[in-house]
Design a protein that fits this description.
about 240 residues; alpha/beta; Rossmann fold; six-stranded mixed beta sheet; 6 strands; about 45% helix
Length: about 240
């Protein structure tokens, strides 16, 4: 096994696929085990959900004060599709801010997001990251069906914590509209090992989660994640 840690790991997939559960698992590990077994150094998480939730809160405040909403309509949909790409550029901005202030050589930034075809898919999202960032990155895609995404989305919802990364959810109709179709398989079909993004070859690995090992956690998650990240690290260094 080649030693070392990822600089940037994109953790992507459908909503409720298990991304946040993997992050929670990795955060729970002792630092040495996390870096040696999973190639994840000191952990810095960058997620666009808190950014989206801030927009919802600001729009609610504006509505309460009789002012025009900035980001979303009254049904909670973005007023402009380009806001999805704004979020992507915000994710990158947060990374460079972290690098200038706190990241060291062995640290890992885990960038988490989901995208559906309704707002351009993963292909559109990745086109808004810079070449400089993509050259540092690897991708772990959490693979579940849309039906499984919907099941877990319903199950995790806590109405008392709609702002929670682990307990937020979308209504079924909104989940279907925004994420019912995915372009992941189209994006990754050209090569089983690398995504070709803006002229940059970015290694990727698929983490199969149809049996929901991320909710069960334990040895099943630990073993599968170890295997996938070890294989991804080898691709990243080949």
């Amino acid at each position: 096994m080649i030693s070392g840690t990822f600089k940037i790991l994109f953790l992507i997939g459908r909503p409720a696929a298990g991304k946040s559960e993997i992050i929670s698992f990795l955060k729970s590990l002792p630092a040495e085990e996390r870096s040696t077994i999973y190639h994840i150094g000191d952990f810095y998480e960058i997620d666009d959900f808190p950014m989206i939730w801030t927009w919802f809160e600001e729009d609610a405040i504006l509505t309460r004060n009789g002012k025009p909403r900035l980001y979303t309509d009254h049904d909670g949909y973005f007023k402009f599709n380009y806001l999805w790409n704004l979020l992507i550029e915000r994710l990158e901005m947060e990374y460079w801010k972290m690098e200038s202030s706190s990241l060291t050589g062995g640290d890992t930034a885990v960038i988490e997001f989901a995208r559906g075809m309704q707002h351009g898919g993963f292909s559109e999202a990745f086109s808004h990251f810079s070449d400089k960032l993509l050259r540092r990155a690897a991708v772990l895609y959490i693979d579940v069906s849309f039906e499984e995404s919907m099941r877990k989305n319903r199950k995790r919802f806590n109405p008392d914590k709609p702002y929670s990364i682990l307990e937020h959810a979308l209504p079924d109709d909104k989940l279907n509209r925004l994420y019912g179709e995915s372009d992941w398989h189209e994006l990754s079909s050209a090569n089983p090992d690398y995504l070709h993004l803006k002229g940059t070859r970015v290694p990727y690995m698929v983490f199969e989660n149809k049996d929901d090992v991320t909710t069960k956690a334990g040895e099943a998650l630990a073993g599968r994640l170890h295997q996938r990240l070890d294989e991804l690290w080898e691709k990243h260094n080949s």
